[in-house]
Structures are given as C-alpha cells and as structure tokens.
Amino acid sequence: MRTRGAVLLAHILTGLALGYTVANIGYGDYAELNRMFTFQDPRMLLSFAGAVVIIVVAFALLRVRRTPGRIHAGVIPGAVLFGTGWAISGGCPAIPITQLAGGYLPALVTIAGVTVGIRLCRWANARYFRLDRGSCGL
Q1: Less Cβ around it within 10 Å: N or C end of the chain?
Q2: What value, to the nearest 5°, has the Cα angle with vertex 109 and ends 107 and 112?
Q3: How far apart are CA 46 and CA 69, in angstroms?
C-alpha cells in the first residue's frame, strides 16, 4: 500500500536526483543553454535527441499507445512561447530552480516570469479563449 508520505518521499528523492544530475551535466548553466540555442555546441541538443530515442524505445517496449486525435488549440502558441522564454531566460520552468540552488540569482526573474505567465494564461483562457483545460491544468 502506498502512503502519501512514501509517495512524497519518492518524489522528493527523485527530484533531488534529477536536480543533481541536471546541475552536474551543465543544463542549469545559462551559457551552456545559450550555446545550444545558438547552435554553437551540439552536445546538449544531441543529448535531448538521445533522450527522445530512449523514450521512443521504452514506449515501444512497454507498448504505450497514444490515441491520435486533434491537436489542442493551445499547443502551437504554447510551444512557441515556451521555447522563446526558454531561449531568453536560459531555462524551462524547472531549470531556474536548479540555477537558484546553485546561487544564480537572476533565476528569480525567470521564476517570477513563469509565475506571471501562468497567471496571465489562466486569466486569458477564462476571459477570452475558454480552451479545454484537459491535462494541462490551466
């Protein structure tokens, strides 16, 4: 039987392991991310591609199937905004936490931007778009 405490502990340990790994391979470093986005150093880009290959193989072995359907109306603009924000700030929503833990204080601006962006998205969706929230949790 899984208790809430055991699940929470597993999540904390997994998060710490991921954060440690991300920090030690340089993914929390703004300069490293900038080199990836400007195609100066393909190392990180190739590791992302390798991760995609690994997950494709794992899904095939586990026979995970996604039911094809319509693309959610917010996927394309959301992906563009996400990628633009990542390129400008040097981090996806989780990386600034790793950067902050490593003493990189400008990550606070990224965390504030993510928080404001989430709130603006919720507001705009409720007021104008009324998109199906699905699993995105808008």
Answers
A1: N
A2: 110
A3: 29
Q: Is 101 helix (H, G, I), strand (E, B) or coil?
A: helix
Residues 70-112: pLDDT tens digits? 777 777 887 888 888 777 777 777 788 887 877 888 888 888 8
For residue 81, being part of any structural domain is answered with yes
d(CA 123, CA 77): 16
Q: Which domain holds residue 110?
A: 4-129
For residue 98, the 8-state DSSP code is H
Q: pLDDT tens across 1-19, in order?
A: 578 888 889 888 888 888 7
